[in-house]
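User: Continuing from earlier, I have the next pair ready.

Assistant: Great, send them over.

User: Here they are, in order.

Assistant: Folding the first of the pair now:
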Amino acid sequence: MEEFAGGPASPPPARDSGPDRGADRPAVAEAERITKRYGETTALDRAHITIRPGETHALVGRNGAGKSTLVSILTGLQAPDEGEVRFAGTPAPRLSDRDAWRERVACVYQKSTIIPELTVAENLYLNRHDRNRFGLVGWKGLWRKAAEQLEAWSVDVDVRRPAGELGVEQRQFVEIARALSFGARFIILDEPTAQLDGAAIARLFDRMRAMREQGVTFLFISHHLQEIYEICDTVTVYRDARHILTAPVADLPQGELVAAMTGEAAGLREHAVRPPVPAETPVVLDVRGLSDGDVYQDVDLQVRAGEIVGLAGLGGSGKTELAETVVGLRAPQEGTLEVAGSRPRPGSVPESLAAGVGFVPRDRHQQGLVPLMSIADNATMTVPERLGQAGFVSGRRRDAMAREMINNLAIKTPGPDLPVSGLSGGNQQKVVMARALANDPRLLVLITPTAGVDVRSKEFLLGKVEEIADTGTGVVIASDELDDLRLCNRVLVMFHGRVVAELAAGWHDHEMVAAMEGVDLDA
């Protein structure tokens, strides 16, 4: 299906000639029949996209749809296993010819590539400094050239200023200007608004429109669908590594766009739905008026014993920061937080543990594991008081506790002494879960608990969460993965720091995605 008929749910802002712009000229970039595999995983399956001159083309899809893999292929970071990439009708350069790639395409990533210790001018012309006859950098000439480059694209930044002093918005503009300085007129923007406020987003879009009039073409990747309708001419949807549709934005209702992303237009999930927890059940988490500046505001949240409550939202929604506040990694600016009747000191992980909180962080590699330590040490590090007296750890007691955890969570290992780095991703995540359960928590908080694990481990971990809840532990799951949220009794959806919806168990996929995207399907 290449396009849907119908009009948008709400009229998008007026755009100029739209997707017909440049139709009589070769496509700026084309990817045809692109297949990319990583072992048994197919990241792209005969996917395609065509970006026309002068348009802003959106690429959307859920996590794992293949967007990042396509970007890496379009920018020459890796080659497809099958298929072809062309720029202006000619085949893409060899991967080794980086200068030729920079002349054709550039990507501004969500995570900045600006070097903060260098000045703006040095970042603009890194490794391209003009030198005099003595081999020294001609700083005046560099500053002048950098200032001319920024002025040409209406970027108002002092070229002598250290880049580390720039805000997110300014860094993005500098990165765009740097890409344009190589000669590229095709720019990929990967989640450019994730860290911007409303005013900065409006300025970014104004700058994009102005650059487009100067001959720049954009591929715009975003989870926020209202931005697609505001700035883009054409949208392409990927799902499960495949191209699903390409259509003019003005001809595609938001509800149909969400349906294309999820593969579901209506209908309940087929598996069992968790019933509501009785109102008389004791509360194990009571959050009142919790706020942390612009990160999240005025959140009320109660979780009862045996209840699984989801916190859904995209990047920048505040769900992760709220979950980290509950476990003591962050201190709120306002509000109160009680766990099983006690009030741990804000921002104190030890007091949160003592109150009965268990925690699975969002990134097991950076936050969840010490790779060179053993499974036993990783799994028991939060409960040293159970392993010995007077600050001494009994290896026998530690290993016995670890073996019990290994059996309980079906961790595939020859023994508790194996370094956790020797485990597969799914088994590593089970070790993180084991540590979260080591203190017999009254409240278990999990952030994207199944990220980067295989299907079998994912099913096991989610099943274990349900088992834990059935024993009377309250559970909070902060995630944007629909499968993580399906086992919840109810889900609070956050958008730009506020709770905007509460969905009872039995929600439709398209309903959840729309709420996370800030789309009102009834509008």
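And the other member of the pair:
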Amino acid sequence: MKQIIFLTLLLLSSLYSKTSDYSVIIDKPFSDALFDITEDYDRSISAVGFSREFKQNSHTSKTYTNAFDYLSSVSNKHGSQIHLLKLNNKAEVVLSKATKLSRFTEAVALAKTPANGYYIGGYTLDGDLLILKLDSNGNIIFNKTFGTKNYDRMNNLILMSDGGVLAVGSSVTSRSAHDSMFETGLGKNDIYITRFSKDGAKLWSKKYGTKYDDRGIDASEARDGSIIVVSTTSYDKNKNVTLMRITENGNRMWLKHYKSENLVTPRKIIRLRDNNFVLALSEYNNMQKEQIRLIKFDLYKNVLIDKKIFTTYPSTLNDIKEFSDGSFIGVGYVKDTYNTDGLVMILDSHLTMRNQEHYGQDQYDLFNAVTILHNSQAAAAGVHTNNNSQETNMWIAKFNRDGTLAQISTNVTNFYQKLCDIFKKEIDEHIITIKEDLTIELIDKSLYFKVGEYKLTDKQKLFLDGFSKKLVPFLNANKEQINTLEINGHTSSEWGTENFAKGYVKNEKLSINRSFSTLSYIFLNQSKPTQINLSKILRGSGFSYSKKMMLNDSEDREKSRRVAFKIILK
């Protein structure tokens, strides 16, 4: 699994440093996490989750007979509280505020108000549900605690077209048919949905379910005001997915069950621009490996697309959003035996994967939510774990349209346009392609390497001669703003009959050799003054087959055998 070292690190307690990549880690004492993210009207980025604090208790002689009363008494001393973060375009934290409520709280969702404030949905750790309305500075306008007499848990908070919100979650069954909210079900948990007006008035609360364990996961409002709710029903060793359409008042219109022999878990549902819906699920295959499943359906429960995305490593999308052209970005996690990385995946309008990127270090990293920004970039929020640490940290990263990590520098767009102008001929003739993160990919077939080879062919040398005559003067002219020129070697994934470990190591060596052949050819054909300048920014590396090229969910081995260039700004 590819592992990318974070280039931006934010330690609020002691250190703040940044480079050109927009990836921010907020490292506070104890475990923290972010669960949702949105763009503000001033183009800043806000995210919500929880942080934990510890302060020494003052001595008290009071005796408690109830555990929850004791937890409430110390919740401002030690425990999780809802935490709101706001970052500007320079990846600087301009707002960091934890609530000081009387009980332990955690947030799961964030939505914007017309006044550039926020709705935050969450729960107390002793079983109540919360909705907070904040102003743009994070000050509480109102705080609503609600739920049943039993243990409740919120999974999402959805902004509705009337300016109010819909809370979706689960509640331990009341086991009383006289409960005024009781619809169906006497199981362990029931689906629990509550709707609020924009002023915070509760409009209705209802439960739905079976005699089994039912949990509300997510919901989406249709254009006609009805609501599609996705939930799970668990019994024995099975977990079924249920789609339910209800009216704006919570009355059920239809129900559809998805049964599978494999364990299936719904993660997110979104409404599309064409008024259809996409449901993202994770499903274990016959090898007990988590894979991504995406279902597109209409308002009348007709399935339009049912796509399974097969990846090398177990993968899950926790959130998905639609671009204006009908393509998608999804975020989640990818894991192997030893670690978990954040996953960013780009899909076309038919839900076919275009490419994926993995971000993280050696331990536990993942993305929980993504939002698409005004400039077609995207921002994700999640969890990062430092090496040799057992505590999670809050993590925000910004990505380009192709899933690559965005850069902070305001010069990135200018550099991208200049490179496109310089290499217009090569781009028009489909020899190279340039990405917004300043990666230059060689896409002409004559520039790929043959199986197992790393020495440059005459055609590759001829191309590099013309390519370097354009690129090197550009690098020299902008040397004050350029930190690194990476030359990265890549391979396809096969290596004869070798086992996994030996195949990977040999491909790693081959990718390094391809990088070195290209780097040394360009470097040795320059004048000494130019070589001195290049020596300060050139960096070669090998990625083995971790960045293999994909076509229709399968590896394109020929395109995988390549080198690529990437400019990193200061």
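Worth noting for the second one:
Residues 1-19, 182-186 have pLDDT under 50 and may be disordered. The radius of gyration is 26 Å.
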